[in-house]
Amino acid sequence: MSEERKPLNFIEQIIEEDLANGMSRDSLRFRFPPEPNGYLHIGHTKAIGISFGLGEKYNAPVNLRFDDTNPAKEEQEYVDAIKRDVAWLGYQWDKELYSSDYFQQLYDWTIQLIKDGKAYVDSQTSEAMAEQKGTPTQPGVDSPFRNRTVEENLDLFDRMKKGEFDEGEHILRAKIDMKHTNMLMRDPIMYRVLKKHHHRTANDWCIYPMYDWTHGESDYIEQISHSLCSLEFKPHRELYDWFLDQVVDANKLRPKQREFARLNLSYTIMSKRKLLRLVNEGVVTGWDDPRMPTISGLRRRGYTPNALRKFVETAGVAKRDNVIDVSLLEFCIREDLNKTAPRVMAVLNPVKLVITNYPEDKVEWLEAENNQEDASAGFRKVPFSRELYIEKEDFKEEASNKFFRLKLGGEVRLKNAYIIKANDVVKDTQGNITEIHCTYSEDTSKKVKGTLHWVSIEHAIKAQVREYDRLFMDEAPDGHQDKDFMEFINPNSLKLIEAFVEPSLKDAKIGERFQFQRLGYFNVDDDSSLDNIIFNKTVGLRDTWAKKKPQVQANNQHKPKPQQQQSQRKPIDVIKQLGKKYTNLPEAKQEKSKAEILKLAEEVRYEDLEPLFATAAKKVGTRIATAITLGVLLKNGLDKNEVIDAFIAKALEDKNELLVAEAQML
């Protein structure tokens, strides 16, 4: 059976057409050209992935070129951070280059343009030039300095270079056409005076080339075959080509600019200027704050290179701008960490549990599996004693049969340990439960529905957990013309928790990632030390945000409710309906369906789900939906039984990869 081939994206189609029309594969060369004026963010991973991905596909070199033409905003810190991020993502560049390497060549070409009458020095104010620019429907007006002589322009430009003029006193413009329908072609600025220290050229220059003049010529100098950029540069393509027309040698390769849709993410901003404002105003602790969408922030939070690369691959290469739901990014990191993160036990909101019939001085070291997804991960020992911590929310004095955790008179299994029964509680003067008194049974073969995680109080290590929520409460925080994006800051985006973790984490190293069982994925923060271990919450085991969003919509009385009839149906019936169509949906829509199933599963009883375990093998979609739902029930404390084990075993043997993947998570 032949291996399934992925269809080419439109950029790959362009390259294949060029190769078919005679371009040599040896001529292919790409580049990633960041401006070192901030840290890279999640949006840049798409540009990085496209250029370096093409390099890998065609075995072609990829340059890392810094477009460093604005010393007012650029710093060596940003250069170092960008190099670190690209390398961390797993990409290797061919040459490390800088646009500032070409300042002299750009200057020499500019002198020739002035001599050819294609550039002139303008001495107007920026306000006057803006008025003369015109509008998309009205032509511009020529500058009164447009017809200066070549000699006068050469003299003024030379004096600009020597530092005789103040910033803003003169600029150099290309002489194209002030009536052009593309406003970028209306005598664009080529050079301005900037008396700033440059991080590489120091004070050698006080005139700096503009981006449009520098970018295409740098591509040409490096002999880049395909200059790939985001859609906002599409109107610039005409100017890119005009500048190349002035310098290109017919015997050399001419770069070709092509544009792709940038990656936009919900509940996130992608402007480096706005991200810098968050840093400068102290909303976050720095560019690498785990709430930031920067690559360094995501790395510190516990994201992996594999997850980010998978996210970019899933989002795809498109010609139109769109917004990707942040839940897809979170899904990718869950999928990756599920396979690799060791399982440990931690309690974030502790209440004391005393096993009254367990000897006071006894300690047992019980065996616990490190990762059921990885047979090579092995086992570890965890201490068990008379007094434990469990989560407060895992106990209720009275609860319905939907509550699979501990309640008075009820029994649950302690993970990797014994079955316990809650008998009574101790309360303080305010009526708060301070202790739960239980008895244990050494008969671990008994079937009970709930399983709880725990830590031995005597052996537990105190740790700080930084629990993060989304930094913005609005889906498009910078999409409101009448509001500042800062108005949508989530005041509860960081919660500091004093937690207790099992002793195996005592020597956990900075950056190491773990699954806190039943709670989510966490990693050791950079601020951590031997005396003060700190964990960042990377992501929960399921998308809890999806449950919050409908509540916002429900408060809007004016919106129609087209799915009102569906909401009257039992959750299990809706899940079955979603399952029927699941395997026929594209990947993005599958993610939406999965999010809906996860949400509905919170309302499903085990008795409703059990009949679906006998679903026919050919109804793969329904079996996938069943597995997703079962995962929620298990995470909420349902204990496995023979029927569940049989369903999982059968699913693991199936030929459908989606079903197998869901079964592996169980």
UniProtKB/TrEMBL annotation:
GO terms for molecular function: ATP binding; glutamine-tRNA ligase activity. Keywords: Aminoacyl-tRNA synthetase, ATP-binding, Cytoplasm, Ligase, Nucleotide-binding, Protein biosynthesis. GO terms for cellular component: cytosol. InterPro entries: aa-tRNA-synth_I_CS, Gln-tRNA-synth, Gln/Glu-tRNA_Ligase, Glu/Gln-tRNA-synth_Ib_cat-dom, Glu/Gln-tRNA-synth_Ib_codon-bd, Glu_tRNA_lig_a-bdl, Rbsml_bL25/Gln-tRNA_synth_N, Ribosomal_bL25/Gln-tRNA_synth. It comes from the Bacteria. Residues 126-145, 549-571 are annotated as: Disordered. One of its GO terms (biological process) is glutaminyl-tRNA aminoacylation. Residues 341-440 form the Glutamyl/glutaminyl-tRNA synthetase class Ib anti-codon binding domain. Residues 451-525 form the tRNA synthetases class I (E and Q) anti-codon binding domain. Its EC number is 6.1.1.18. Residues 28-338 form the Glutamyl/glutaminyl-tRNA synthetase class Ib catalytic domain. Belongs to the class-I aminoacyl-tRNA synthetase family. This is Glutamine--tRNA ligase. It comes from Seonamhaeicola marinus. The lineage of its organism: Bacteria, Pseudomonadati, Bacteroidota, Flavobacteriia, Flavobacteriales.
